[in-house]
């Protein structure tokens, strides 16, 4: 624990300045958090469009595969039908009953196979029609989504610009506030600030407002006297006996 003993410094007023400084520091911290989150927020908003686009791509691929299968089946059925015609026209020229029976069996098999292919063809047609309807719906959804997303991104961009302006103003105020704090106290504050956003803690009911550890009566007296800058023995936050002015982080 560091101690800043300097009778030339009015510790009480320094702590008040430090309180003001911390308030600005916390405000700045929150603004930076919001600004830093903007790219991810934008990506998240834009991903809503990509979800619809991905669905359309997958559905289009599925539809194209079905269309190809349908074309292939139709070609096979056309060939088989052609073959069947030739085959049937040759039935007259068959001499033996055995050959005739074999030919009839083959004809029956070709017809059965064609029927099965026709069923699949019909099924594919239904799938393709359903996909076409769904794709029309999705492109409407996509247009809606794109306009919503554009609106959300524009809103966020405007907010981000506002936060950026606030951040710059806050940084200037913080710099001005720092000028009121003695360098050795500023050094202590910065060191603690590198670990905690709220480097200045208020002592309430004998407890450090930062880490909730109990403060010894001896230290409590020192804090009240304010002859020196006191730090919590546990978390090292600068302890402040004055009225709470900073918002909790
Ligand atoms: Zn503490």
pLDDT under 50 segments (min length 5)?
244-249
CATH topology of the largest domain: Helix Hairpins
Proportion of beta-strand residues: 5-15%
What's the level 1 CATH class of the largest domain? Mainly Alpha
Helicity range of the residues?
A: over 70%
End-to-end CA span: 23 Å
The 3D shape can be described as: rod-shaped
Largest sheet: 5 strands, mixed
Q: Which strand order spans the largest sheet, edge to edge or round the barrel? A: 1-4-5-2-3
Report the total helices.
4
Radius of gyration: 40 Å
The bound ligands are: zinc ion
Helix-strand string: EHHHEEHEE
The total domain count is 2
Oligomer: single chain
Beta strands, count = 5
Global structural class: alpha+beta
Features:
6% strand; 249 residues; disordered C terminus; Helix Hairpins; rod-shaped; 73% helix; 5-stranded mixed sheet; 4 helices; alpha+beta; binds zinc ion; 2 domains
Provide a concise account of the structure shown.
The chain has helices spanning 11-89, 97-178, 183-193, 217-225; strands at residues 4-5, 200-204, 207-208, 228-231, 238-240. With 249 residues, it is an alpha+beta fold.
What does this protein look like?
The chain has 249 residues and is an alpha+beta fold. The chain is built from 4 helices and 5 strands, in the order βαααββαββ. It has 2 domains: 92 residues, Helix Hairpins (Orthogonal Bundle); 133 residues, Helix Hairpins (Orthogonal Bundle). Strands 1-4-5-2-3 form a 5-stranded mixed beta sheet, with helices on both faces. The protein is rod-shaped. 15% of the residues are buried. The site of zinc ion (ZN) has 9 residues, from loops.
């Amino acid at each position: 624990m560091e101690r800043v003993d300097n009778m030339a410094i009015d510790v009480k007023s320094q702590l008040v300045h430090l309180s003001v400084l911390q308030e600005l520091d916390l405000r700045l911290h929150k603004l930076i958090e919001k600004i830093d989150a903007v790219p991810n927020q934008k990506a998240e908003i834009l991903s809503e469009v990509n979800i619809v686009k991905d669905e359309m791509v997958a559905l289009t691929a599925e539809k194209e595969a079905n269309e190809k299968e349908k074309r292939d089946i139709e070609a096979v059925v056309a060939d088989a039908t052609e073959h069947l015609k030739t085959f049937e026209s040759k039935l007259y020229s068959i001499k033996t009953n055995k050959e005739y029976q074999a030919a009839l069996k083959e004809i029956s098999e070709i017809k059965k196979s064609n029927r099965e292919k026709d069923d699949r063809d019909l099924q594919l047609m239904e799938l393709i029609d359903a996909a076409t309807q769904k794709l029309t719906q999705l492109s409407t959804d996509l247009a809606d989504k794109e306009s919503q997303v554009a609106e959300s991104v524009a809103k966020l961009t405007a907010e981000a610009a506002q936060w950026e302006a606030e951040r710059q103003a806050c940084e200037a105020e913080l710099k001005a506030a720092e000028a009121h704090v003695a360098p050795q106290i500023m050094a202590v504050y910065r060191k603690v600030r590198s670990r905690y956003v709220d480097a200045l803690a208020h002592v309430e009911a004998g407890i450090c407002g930062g880490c909730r550890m109990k403060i010894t009566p001896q230290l409590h007296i020192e804090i009240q006297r304010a002859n020196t800058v006191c730090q919590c023995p546990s978390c090292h936050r600068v302890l402040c006996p004055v009225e709470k002015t900073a918002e909790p982080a």
